[in-house]
Design brief:
Layout: E1 2-7, H1 10-15, E2 19-23, H2 30-40, E3 52-55, E4 58-60, E5 71-75
Parallel strand pairs: 1-5
Antiparallel strand pairs: 1-2, 3-4, 3-5
Length: 81
Amino acid sequence: MNIKVLLFAHLREIVGSDEINLEMEAGCKGKEVFQEMETRFPELIDHRKYLKLSMNGEYIDMETEILDQAEVAIFPPVSGG
């Protein structure tokens, strides 16, 4: 299955793009998407415990099954004021 991964802030600098298309196994979970991104971009490993995922605009956890053609966003911590 094909998914689009969106990256924000310093994550897009690490990857060198604001989006990546991935071909994943059907039934994969959020954690497997992130593991694939870590394999391709090992610098992401240091950020793992701080990152949040969303799928099609809704926050998900690492155990959520990813849908075919989904848009998965990886977010660094957000601060505001």
